[in-house]
Amino acid sequence: MSRSQHDWIEGYTIFLQEYLQEGRLSPEIGDWIQEAIAAQIPLSTLFQWHHHSLFQFLQQDLNPEHWPPLLEKAATFQSHNFSLYNLKKSLNYPVVGPVLDQESVNIPSKEQELKLRENTEFEHLISSMCTQFMWLDFRELDREIETAIGRLAQHYQCDRAYLFQLGGDRQMAQLRCQWYAPDISPLPPLWHQIPVEFTPWWMKHLNEHQAIPIHSLQDFPPEAKAEHAIASAIQAQSLLLLPLIDNDQLIGYLGFSTIRQSKIWGKDCIKQLKLASELLTCTLKRKQVELTLEHLHEQMELSIEQRTQELQDVNSQLQAEIRERHQIENALRQSEVRFRHIFEDSPLGIAILNTEYGLERVNLSLCRMLGYSALELQSVNLVDLLHPDDRDLTHTLLNRLMKGEIPSFQIKQRCIHQSQEFLWVKVIASVISTSDSLVKSSQVSPTYGILIVENITERKQADETLKLIQFTLNRVMDSVLLIDAHGQLIYVNDRACQTLDYRRDQLLRMNIGEIDLSCRTSPWKEFWNQVKSSGFMRVDSVYQSQSGVEIPVEINFNFFQYQGLEYSCAIARDLRDRQKAEAALEKSQHLLAASQKAAGLGSWEFDLLTQEIFWSDEVFRIFGQDPTWEKPPTYSQHIRQYHPHDRAQFQQVIQQAISEGIDYDFELRILRSSGDVRTVWTQGQPIFNDRGEVIKLFGLIQDITARKQVELALKDNEMRYRTLVSHIPGIIYRCLPNQDWTVEFINDAIEDIISYSADDMMSRMVPGLAILLHPEDLPWVREQVKFALAQHAPFELEYRMIARDGTIHWVYEKGKGVWNEQEELVYLDGAIFDVSDRKQAEAQLKASLAEKEVLLREIHHRVKNNLNIIYSLLDMQSRQVSDPGLNDLLLDSQKRLKTMALIHEKLYCSKSISRIDFAEYIHSLVLSISASYRMQSHQINLEIEADPVQLTIETAIPTGLIINELVTNALKHAFPGDREGTVWIEFREIDHGQLDLKIIDNGIGLSSGVSGQQSPSLGMRLVSILADQLDADLEVQNNNGTGFHLRFEQCS
């Protein structure tokens, strides 16, 4: 609003206020303005909304003579001619005179006229809204607010308008009303409630009383992401939010949005809509105030109604009390007369009691009840007439009664009759009060007590009897049901409730047909007549419990009449346990018969009174009889079934059991009808009557013939075993697998070996076998035994034991573990033999062998020396021989001697005097041969591959000679001149005892006819002979050199 417009409005406002006070306005406009003031609408705001309507009122209401003062007052509040011009124009006042001339008037342009027209339309709209809001009932304001925001939206060409109001906790904005164009959808339900914390940017500006114009969605700042999302969700192209402010606090906001196209929100538009939002704020506040006033009004009316009703009730109560007092006074006069008659003629005992519990007055019935005269009763205290056990409780109750703590009490107690017998009485005690003076108000103090005494001794006895009957019936193991002639259940005991799974109150509302299945199939009336005619009936039936379980029962119906009515007492016995017991009995009888048959054990019974004997099936079989058709014998016949030598013993035992009443069991022989003699075991015990007399004998009998035979066989085997064990020269033992190896059994041979007796060991005088072992041997013996037991394998050991006299014995032990079914080690069984003599012989033999080994080494040494002497003699002879052929022969003989001497040298130098390491021997032999020919390393290469095989002298000598001959032949003949080559010597053990020898060269090869025993060469013939001696397979290859392959077994 411009300054000129503001001054113009202020002028109008002052004018209206003065004219309103002077009464110069018509009643219609005056009342209208007064209502606006009552609604707390400032006149300046009222004028902004409705100034056109005011002009019309003023033109009709004011006398033109009043206009000049109006213009003068308006001129004092403005400095622009615009206000005066419009004011005069509105009043059709001539725009002439000293205040205003024609030249000073600003005539509006077309644009201003258009804008003025828009403003005028807005003013008409606001005026119409204000009129509607002012005169409309507040209950219809919500609908009118929705219409108003729709008109505003249409005026500003918006597609949607809405008003949100904040809740009481100011955490949620709730949609109050909305308007939307015909072709536009309403706000989605999702956005009818918007949490305040979800729109922080909006709320910040609205709380600062700022309007939020959004010309397009791009105008949203980055921090308004949530608000942008909401605008996108409701398809808004542009929107305007205006705060609704009341008492400087945000209570909601008004919103307008366009959907089809964006809109530029001008400043005038925003100002005008702000004015509309203020109008809506006032309207909302008006509705809130009127709602509050209405609520207060309703509460006040309700309070008045309640107070009026209370006063009416009090008045009615006072009138009723007055009437009641008159009635009480009349009743008291009548009551006094009646009381005198009741006191004197009542069959109940009545007494007046003073504050000291003395009997002031008694009637004749009380005197007769207690056996005293009236004077006697009036001279005693009430408490003295009571049973000692009841006095304390009664005294306490009387105290409280006289003090006014209780108005009355009732008690059952015992009184003492004049005959010193006790009577059960029912006492009802109350007080007779007297009023004090009027000064003490209407307070009442008890003065006398009145007692009404009823003799209930017979009733008490009947109650006790009834309780006893009830207690007895509830302890009965059968269901007891009392039934009337219509089948209705009158009484049920606890067992019936437990069996049928109903509460007692449920059963007492039921008919017998609801639980007895047989009553559902046959008419109850017919069955009742049968029970009535017979007086007693026993039937089998089936009850059904609440859970549907069918219970077989045996029912005894007893008919009787009481006080002219017919009843039946049904006693139902649950047959489930009996049926189970019968089934179990039958099953047990079958099992007993089967077990007796399996065990060969029969049961019998002898009745002394009838002399009858009962046998089970197995007894018949024991005596060789058929139980299917034969009967038990008589007592005299039964005696003849025993062996003649045992009959007297049997009769003596039976007579002793009967006369002394003692149990017995013994073994004797019986004679079967087939003539077989069997041994039986029999056991019996007497059965007594109430007088302690033996009336029956009951017992068992078992055929133990097979057991006797087994026992005899076991005794024979045991004797054989003991004889065998006692004659074994070694220790036979069984011990526990503990630390001491505690002995459980040991034979007498231990005394012959280490001088301890078997009793010493089994009586624990010696803790166990472990203590008898030599301390140096015990640790490793334990380890060996432990290792063998872990493998479930037997163990064999040789160790030393210390005898009683301290001597040491070498022993040999062989033992094993004994495990139970749970794989637990329970025993160690074994045998120990004294091997001291063998150990001594072995020591002597080892000494002898050592001596012989020294002699053999000396022999090998001497043989080697003798061969070397021969070698030296041949060497000396060869130096004197000039014939080359003869010289070669001597040289070959020397090498053969060297070969054999080398073997003897290896033998006496090795650890074993019977075997040599042949691989080492080959290397030494080939080295010696190559040295004898003074080979050059670059001419002939010798390669040796030999396994470290130990050969006996029988195998080593011929094998060494073969290697000597073949290697010598290769060095002499395979590489003539300066020819170079290689000789391979390979010696392998291809299998246990199987040897493989290969000597190969890559020389010129053998001439034809050189190999074999027919060869002219002595060396080849010697190789063939030696191969036959070894029983070797000899293969000769003569292709690109020469190869010899021998395969043979080592000689033993």
From TrEMBL:
Coiled-coil regions, chain positions: 297-338
Catalytic activity: ATP + protein L-histidine = ADP + protein N-phospho-L-histidine
Superkingdom as given in the UniProt entry: Bacteria
Enzyme class: transferase
Domain PAC per the UniProt entry, residue ranges: 664-716, 795-847
SMART domains per UniProt: HATPase_c, PAC, PAS
InterPro entries per the UniProt record, alphabetical: GAF-like_dom_sf (IPR029016), HATPase_C_sf (IPR036890), HATPase_dom (IPR003594), PAC (IPR001610), PAS (IPR000014), PAS-assoc_C (IPR000700), PAS-like_dom_sf (IPR035965), PAS_fold_3 (IPR013655)
Regions crossing the membrane: none
Pfam hit, one: HATPase_c
Keywords annotated in UniProt: ATP-binding, Coiled coil, Kinase, Nucleotide-binding, Phosphoprotein, Transferase, Virulence
Record carries keyword ATP-binding: yes
Keyword Magnesium in record: no
EC number(s) recorded for this UniProt protein: 2.7.13.3
PAS domain boundaries: 335-405, 465-508, 717-792
GO molecular function, one term: protein histidine kinase activity
Stated name of the protein: histidine kinase
Origin species: Roseofilum reptotaenium AO1-A
Origin organism lineage: Bacteria, Bacillati, Cyanobacteriota, Cyanophyceae, Desertifilales
